[in-house]
Amino acid sequence: MRRTICDIRYAIHENMKIDFTNVPKHYAARTHEKMQEVLMDPQGIGPAVHYYMIRGGSDQKNITVWEPGTISGEYIKTYGHYHVGDLSETYWITYGQGIALLQKLAEDENGNIIPDTVSEFKAVPVKAGDEIFMPAKFGHLVVNTGKTYFATADDSPVYFDDPDPAGLPGHADYKPVQDMQGFAYYVVEHEGKPALKKNPHYKAIRKEDLGGLPVVD
Questions:
Q1: Alpha-carbon distance 209 to 195, whole Å?
Q2: Considering only CA atoms, which of 180, 202, 198 is closest in space to residue 82?
Q3: Torsions phi, psi for 11 (to 5 deg)
Q4: Buried (b) or exposed (e) across 46-63, using 16+ Cβ within 10 A?
Q5: Residues paired with 187 in a beta bridge
Q6: Residue 46 near residue 60 (C-beta atoms within 8 A)
Q7: How far apart are alpha carbons 40 and 52 in whole angstroms?
Q8: 3-state secondary structure of 78
Q9: Which of 42, 73, 117, 123 could cysteine-pair with 36, CB 3.0–4.6 Å?
Q10: Which strands form 89-95's sheet, in the order they lie side by side?
Q11: Is the confidence at residue 152, as pLDDT, over 70?
């Protein structure tokens, strides 16, 4: 018996058992309006969308793409967040070059975070083919320092019913980053190359590894 193309397509779909329910929810973007909360210069001019994600849910990796460029000298970056609970994350750099920032906030005697004091800060230059591990309790963001778009894959779980499609409520806390207007350092362009500039909202950084990057005023 001859099978039609429609029959074959139906059979393939049935065998793969693909659920298309969440397809419209895969795409999520961070707009300039939202990113103003954590920029070195909130009034700086930037693209309508700084970066966007193809969200994988719990069974697939997330793909994130950054636009290239700077805003008042600061390279385009992700918003930055801390994981809630004992959750780590791995990033695989698939295209371009950038810098990952990791920081762990200090805690008081009761285990409460001290928002303006960093116990450990790291800046890690990365490029296509690299892999970087984000330990539990380390806030992290990634910056595109190249001339092209920058792309990564990561294994953080996403729940499609979250109210904020670009966030991970229940797994990520953005509020400490918003309150301090970013991380302890901004990644800025200086003489055509990446450099770090201190965020004045932080009072102290107890331990730091700047990844060979210079610090500028």
A1: 13
A2: 180
A3: -65, -40
A4: beeebbbbebbeeeebbb
A5: 196
A6: no
A7: 20
A8: coil
A9: 42
A10: 27-31, 49-54, 62-66, 150-154, 89-95, 131-134
A11: yes
Give the pairing type, strands 185-190 and 208-209.
unpaired
- Which residue reads 């729940």 in tokens? 159
How many residues are present in the chain?
A: 217
Query: Which tokens in the block code for residue 168?
Result: 């991970």
| Cα separation, 124 vs 166, whole angstroms | 24
39, two tokens: 């920029």
Strand pairing category for 204-205 and 113-127: parallel
Classify domain 22-209 at the CATH topology level.
Answer: Jelly Rolls (2.60.120)
Q: What is the residue type of 61?
A: K
Q: Which two tokens stand for residue 96?
A: 């371009």
For residue 83, give the nearest of 3, 169, 152 by alpha carbon. Answer: 169
What value does the mean pLDDT of the chain take? Answer: 89
Q: Which amino acid is at 158?
A: V
Whose tokens are 């990564």? That residue is 152
DSSP bridge pairs for 144: 98
Q: Hey, which residues does 13 pair with through a beta bridge?
A: none
Where are the domains positioned within the chain? 22-209
Whether the pLDDT of residue 146 is over 90: the answer is yes
Q: Which residue has the tokens 């901004």?
A: 186
Which of the 8 DSSP states describes residue 156? Answer: -
